[in-house]
Amino acid sequence: METAMQNRAGATAASHDSLASRTVQITLAALLGVFVLGGVGFSHISAVHNATHDVRHANAFPCH
Amino acid sequence: MSLFRTILFVAALAGIGAGLVGSAIHLFTTVPLILAAETFEGAGEAPALATTDAHEHAPGTAAHSHDEEEWGPADGLERNGLTIVFTVLTGFGFALLLVAASEVMGGLKGWHQGLLWGLAGFAAFTLAPGLGLPPELPAMPAADLAARQAWWIATVAATAGGLALIAFGRSPLLAALGVALIVAPHVIGAPQPESHESPIPEALHHSFVVASVGASFVFWVLLGGLAGWLRPRFAAPSA
């Protein structure tokens, strides 16, 4: 299985990344997620609120 | 491929997949109920304003009264198109958090593990905040927006942290702490309006809660499953 071999190789490569580098990259990705969700679900800007209105209600984000 | 790019690609694809399916479900289930609720908005304005001042804040009012000064999407294609776009973006955002969190634990190994993470996401982002702040329709009375947003975020964080302690903590004490974290926001209680009197018929709201939670369940299962399935395929070495 080619993918299985790639998985193992990938896991090995990942383990060579330094802990600090992994921490920074994971944190950056999570912050980007928070930023995107903040924009869609929590923005107080009126135009953004109106554009995302149905999504906010449908996904039970506190809307207004 | 760097870890950051792996997370980004896996989250983007999982978000697009779950977002497209999720928005299709929403357009056929929750969105018609939102539109139906908006027809009560004019009629319900007086009691809603009488019961809570918080509801009359500017953006919300503008969104529904379609005030000329405030931009809002035109009903139909524009409005539903935005719902699709923003549901996909929501999927991307949730997937970024899910995949990033799973990388702390070494990365998703396959769809099955991803699905379990998706269920945890459903519990943390839908069930837990939904207990205190059920999905609500336009024209329903609600407490101060900022207070509800703060409770929502704190509840999500406490539930996610609690689930992590239960799943990955290695002692009964940590598991007990996890349970306490999950229960705590509900002991404190979500901000509630002064009165729950609402122009929205109870049956309409009930249908909406069922549709919203159901759509969220499918969305999270798909998001987690897709992310778990994609992650090993992107983690292949290239650099």
From TrEMBL, chain A:
What are the TM regions of this chain, as residue ranges?
26-47
Upper lineage: Bacteria, Pseudomonadati, Pseudomonadota, Alphaproteobacteria, Hyphomicrobiales
Pfam families membership: CbtB
The protein's name in its UniProt record: Cobalt transporter subunit CbtB
Entry keywords, A to Z: Membrane, Transmembrane, Transmembrane helix
TrEMBL record, chain B:
Q: Which residues form a coiled coil?
A: none
Tell me which UniProt keywords the record has, alphabetically. Answer: Membrane, Transmembrane, Transmembrane helix
Q: Does the keyword Kinase apply?
A: no
Q: Which residues cross the membrane?
A: 81-102, 114-131, 151-168, 173-188, 208-230
For this protein, the record's InterPro entries field holds: CbtA_put
Region described as Disordered: spans on this chain = 51-71
The protein's name is Cobalt transporter subunit CbtA
The species this protein belongs to is Ancylobacter dichloromethanicus
